[in-house]
Amino acid sequence: MKLISWNVNGLRAAVSKDSFAWLDSVKPDFLGLQETKASEDKIPSEIYSLGFKEININSAARAGYSGVMSLVNFDTLCTKSLFFDDNEGRVLEHRFGNVVLFNIYFPNGQKDEERLSYKMKFYANFLAYLDELKAQNFDIIICGDVNTAHQEIDLKNPKANAKTSGFLPIERAWIDELLSHGFIDTFRQIHGDEVKYSWWSYRFKAREKNIGWRIDYFFISESLKDRLKDAFILDEIYGSDHCPVGIEIDL
To answer: Which positions does UniProt annotate for Mg(2+) binding (predicted)?
Structure first.
């Protein structure tokens, strides 16, 4: 099964740039989109013509902000956030068989201390919820824009960004904690210390110069480790300041 995650930074803008043409060749079974920035009545009609069996939407209460969408070719029981007051449209949770699959747009903490605090509370609540699911012996997959680069190899200029939200010690420590609770960073599992990024600023020709960050992830519970076949970053695909990331896994 091929699962892909992509922060599109505006669904309507992505559609207007024909940014989904690559789906014809990649053919994912699951496509989790983040930062869709569109209420359900504003979803472009082209999305419903992409050939997916199931489309799930969680839009923010605030217009033109945040939002996640999952396009799925298999049956799931889908709910919005069960661990956080989600008026920002950040979470879709899918259950099928013994698997719980999350599509999440994690908060960005760069605006101010209040938003950083919000981000860290979201992180903490989510990890507590994951612990509950693991105690019930669910297999878990997490995909989305986590808005944090984990290690120095996950961004081009780590020293210059050491005091920037997205690479703060407390944010990076949360990913350490997630891994210590029995989760695997799938890209690192497959590719070791290979340097590859998933987000580039629109400024200063950052993508052209490959001055990027790896902040989009697939994490899986250790119970799925032997079923993981591949992990990849599709940095040749444009249409957003992020590129798609994905995994192949036997489910």
So the answer is: 7, 35, 145, 147, 241-242
